[in-house]
Amino acid sequence: MSPMSTVHKNPEDLSLLFQISQILDQSIDIKQVIKPVLRAVADNMGISRGTITLLNRNSGEISIEAALGLSPSEQEKGRYKLGEGITGKVVQTGQPQVIPNIAEDSRFLNRTGARNTKNENISFICVPIKIGNETIGAFSIDSEFQSDADLEKQVRLLSIVSSLIAQAVKIRHSILEERNQLLEENNRLQQELKAKYQPN
Question: What angle do CA 176, 182, 194 make, to 5 degrees?
Answer without folding.
Answer: 145
